[in-house]
Amino acid sequence: MAVREANAGTEVPSARALERSLIARLVVANTIAGVVVTTYFALTSHLPPGASRVANFAITAGTFVGANLVLSVFAIRRAKRMLVPAALWIDEHRTPTLPERVAVLDLPRRIALFPLPYWILAAAGTAVGQMVFATDPKPLFTAFGTLEGGLFACAMGFLLAERALRPFLAIVLEEDDTHRSPPVGISPRLLLAWLLGSGMPLLGIVTTPIVASNADLPVTVPMVFLAAAAFVSGFMLTAAAARSIGEPMRALRSALDRVATGHLDVAVAVDNAGEVGELQRGFNEMVAGLRERERLADLFGRHVGLEVAQRALHEGAALGGETRDVSALFVDIIGSTTMARERSAPDVVAVLNQFFAVVVSCVDAEGGWVNKFEGDGALCVFGAPIEQPDHAARALRAARHIAAGLREIDAGIGVSSGEAVAGNVGSEQRLEYTIIGQPVNEAARLSDAAKHRPCRVLASAAAVAASGDEAREWRDAGTLELRGLVADFAVCEPRS
């Protein structure tokens, strides 16, 4: 059997399999309705004197079977002419065209109305037969009862056909560009199931005393039969309607559970053209939006740092700042100008990526964040936006680890601590979370000075004094003049 895959992995049978399935469902629905109608008429009929009730049942059943066989020949041929054009694309293994998608979406309605002309013909025929042959003709009640059976068959055929067509609807509804008549909604569907499955049979029970006023059997017999038929038909139609709603709802609930556990790669098949289908489509769009949001949050976090991204997502991103006690670490490659002149662009980028990989790894390990990459350098911050009482110790440890990790790359590293302004600067259209203040300026100057020291790392004495146990790893390195800042600035450097 040729198959295709729907958008949720559902197997799609071949056009021939669809044709057999739909015809079988139509036969079942119409046979059930026909048996109920003919049995009811047989129970309410008045037989001539001496006529056999068994013979009457046999004649009625034979007439029904014969008429059913004759009509089925024409019905099956007509069904094939209706189904084949709508399902031709399946066996040709191609995407359906717009007219073919519209034809598939229209199939449940056409299949529901498919047996109606035959039932109208049967209602007219039985009414005429009543007037010609019956001793107590009631053609109006006979026609009404026959049409009631036909409407039941139409409703059951619609619900059964819609269920069989779900894999095909999942394909044709992938693009919502079809112009079609409004589908049957949930409320009308349930009300129609009750009306045809229970409401009209109950009306038949009420009118049975009139229809069977001259019947040979007690009037309670057809009434009990009709009550049983109403119970069964009501259950069948309601169950079919509930299943047409419940099955996709269960699939949606399962998909929601997966989303709740963080799996955003889930999608449901849009296999309903009505309100349920809109819900399915809305769920898929919601999950796609969540995937996009997660992707943007990941990208945002990579650009500005995870902590800053989370702060912006939870608190918003308004202009302004606050005074914070922070530590700044600045690291800058030595000889980057010469490297850019003597090496190819890909080589320079490779060296920079190797350099920044060490910096980001060491800073992340200590809970800091890289505020910005500045060409061949990076400014790293500890104590903002997340408050860290031991920010000085974290920054100093990160500096030592960066120096140890940059074995093949020569760089100067500076660390300083103190008060700075941390917040969003820029404009409403474009802003950046950054740190502005004395520690940043001092760290940049210390990085330049460290380039001329063997250890390549310098920290302010204030940062070392505030670092607790980490101060044991540092030693006094005297004073130096920081260009544009302080003449005698006390500094420290790692012991090893």
What is this structure, in a nutshell?
It contains 15 helices and ten strands. The chain has 496 residues and is an alpha+beta fold.
Describe the global form: rod-shaped
Distance between the termini: 75 Å
Instruction: Count the E strands.
Output: 10
Strand residue percentage: 5-15%
| Alpha plus pi helix count | 15
Low-confidence stretches: 1-9
Classification by helices and strands? alpha+beta
Biggest sheet overview: 8 strands, mixed
Helix content: 55-70%
Indicate the radius of gyration in whole angstroms: 41 Å
Order of helices and strands: EEHHHHHHHHHHEHHEEHEEHEHEE
* Average pLDDT figure: 79
Model description:
With about 500 residues, this protein is of the alpha+beta class. The protein is built from 15 helices and 10 strands. It has helices at about 15-45, 55-90, 100-115, 115-135, 140-165, 165-170, 185-210, 220-260, 275-305, 305-315, 335-340, 345-365, 390-405, 440-450, 460-465, and strands at about 5, 10, 320-335, 370-375, 375-380, 410-425, 430-435, 455-460, 475-480, 490-495. The strands form 2 sheets. Strands 3, 4, 5, 6, 7, 8, 9 and 10 form an 8-stranded mixed β-sheet that branches.
Reconstruct the topology from this structure.
Layout: E1 4-5, E2 11-12, H1 15-44, H2 53-91, H3 98-113, H4 116-133, H5 139-164, H6 166-172, H7 186-211, H8 220-260, H9 275-304, H10 306-315, E3 320-333, H11 336-342, H12 345-365, E4 369-374, E5 377-382, H13 391-405, E6 411-426, E7 431-437, H14 438-450, E8 457-460, H15 461-465, E9 474-480, E10 489-494
Parallel strand pairs: 6-8
Antiparallel strand pairs: 1-2, 3-5, 3-6, 4-5, 6-7, 8-10, 9-10
Helix pairs in contact: 1-2, 1-5, 1-8, 2-3, 3-5, 4-5, 5-7, 5-8, 7-8, 8-9, 9-10, 12-13
